[in-house]
Amino acid sequence: MAGRYRSVKGTRDLVWPETALWNHVEETARRVFAGYGYGEIRTPLLEPTELFARSVGEETDIVGKEMYTFADRKGRSLTLRPESTAAVARAFIERGLESRGLPAKLFYIGPHFRYERPQRGRYRQFSQIGAELIGDPGPASDVELVLMLVRFLEALAFDELTVLLNTVGDTESRAAYRDALRAFLLPKAGELSADSRRRLETNPLRVLDSKDPGDRELLEGAPELAASLSTAAGEHFAAVRAGLEACGVAHRVEPRLVRGLDYYALTVFEITAGGLGAQDAIVGGGRYDGLLAALGGPDLPGIGFAIGEDRLVEATAEKVGWREPPLWPAVHVVGVDIAPIESLRLAEELRQRGVAATSELAPRSVKAALKGAAREGRSRVVLLGPDELAAGTVTIKDLETGDQETLPRSEAIERLAGGGEA
Ligand code: HAM
After folding, report:
1. Of the candidates 281, 289, 285, 271, the residue with the CA atom closest to the CA atom of residue 169
2. C-alpha 296 – ligand 1 centre gap (Å)
3. Is the CB of 264 under 6 A from ligand 1?
4. Cα distance between residue 67 and residue 49, in whole Å
5. Ligand 1 proximity of 83 Cβ (cutoff 6 Å)
6. How confident is the model at residue 160, as a pLDDT?
């Protein structure tokens, strides 16, 4: 039966056992991030549209084409968050978080929204696991953040990871690069796509994000940012690379990596996972030293990353051959010719003692109940009939060996709780 309604295109339901793997990934993130002193932040799914236009940038694909933007009942323009760096920066400024001491280390896990063409690994509602370090400008912060990211992925059984690294320079370097890129592209402007022609005027760096095959061809031989780097930006990059090397983090400089968001400055990075086809970037990040000031906050630097959790989960499942944990508790109470509420009360006693247990909620034959329990992979069934109820006993049946034993109720509970021999 198809039912009358379907989930919105680009969104999906995650149902156990998938959710067990998602929880495993998230628990691992929480554990690893806590080890580096990160605390969780939860920002709203809705933000003022302005926030993303100002930070991510008007000319980016995200702001120009992919946001879920609408007017609320009072006509205010709101947007479902397409990313969280801007939202975290907003919250940091609004809550005056610098008063808690710097650097601030914050992580988040949750849904984000982009109106993209759905395909494997790309959804309109997707989840990111992200981290932001605000208030420290030095290369050691870049190194520690990337190290934490790599350790997290390793904890999920990824190995031989290579971090793709680049620098987009400081303000001075980027201004010089913009000029160089514009000078290179201007003679070919007539052949560029309409989007790129406009970007050439408004924001030449964003021409580099174009996926148009014609644009890609015209971009061959374009100047690289490295040639326009200021001394300070070059030194920062060298220090980050040396630091990563000292910590044993494999990385490769990718001179064409610029990331499609405007707020980046200096270090940018990505990690890709094989086997995910076109959507193989599982994480992207970088430094955003001017962002807080641009949003009207204190002039504090920042660096962070966001992992595409949907892609990470898919890659993890392939990597470790994920086997779901058993869903059903090992212990199941089966009433024989008694009211289901009596079995429920025994199961509840067990649960109160810390033993995960279920009971038959509707009467059916013992044979059917035992068959069901075996199919669900239970290890023990507790049988309870009128005679047992009267005598204050229960019967424990071991489903693996078939052995069964009748015991006083309290002793049985004690034994199932691990207090006696099994
Ligand atoms: P981003 O590169 O736009 O960066 O997104 C980060 C990751 O989110 C991507 O590498 C990808 O894995 C995942 N992702 C993006 N769009 C989708 C989608 N439609 N479906 C599935 N996964 C997707 C940012 O968002 C920055 N805020 C990262 C950052 C944090 N930079 C500094 N701090």
Report:
1. 289
2. 24
3. no
4. 9
5. yes
6. 79
Whole-angstrom distance, CA of residue 144 vs CA of residue 164: 16
Domain chopping of the chain, boundaries: 18-170+230-320, 331-416
- For residues 212 and 222, what is the distance between their CA atoms, to the nearest angstrom? 16
Mutate to test the pocket of ligand 1, among 8, 47, 126, 152 (most ligand atoms within 8 A of CB): 126
What local confidence, expressed as pLDDT, does residue 277 receive? 72
Task: Give the residue ranges of the chain where pLDDT is below 70.
Answer: 275, 419-422
**Do the beta carbons of residue 257 and residue 267 sit within 8 Å?**
no
Confidence at residue 420, expressed as pLDDT on a 0 to 100 scale: 54
Look at residue 422 in the predicted model and tell me its pLDDT.
47
Mean per-residue pLDDT of the chain: 95
The secondary structure of 356-405 as a DSSP string is -EEE-SS---HHHHHHHHHHTT-SEEEEE-HHHHHHTEEEEEETTT--EE
Distance CA 288, CA 86 (A): 10
Question: Which sign, positive or negative, has the C-alpha torsion 38, 44, 50, 56?
Answer: positive
Res 10: pLDDT: 98
- Indicate if ligand 1 lies below 6 Å from the C-beta of 130: yes
Instruction: Tell me the CATH number for domain 331-416.
Output: 3.40.50.800
Q: What topology is assigned to 18-170+230-320 in CATH?
A: BirA Bifunctional Protein; domain 2 (3.30.930)
Burial 26-63 (b: 16+ CB within 10 A, else e): bebbbebbeebebeebebebebebebbbbbbbebbbbb
Residue nearest ligand 1's atom 7 by CA? 308
Q: With a threshold of 0.85, does the pTM exceed it? A: yes
* Whether residue 287 has its Cβ less than 6 Å from ligand 1: no
- pLDDT given for residue 81 in this prediction: 98
Give the pLDDT score at 322.
Answer: 76
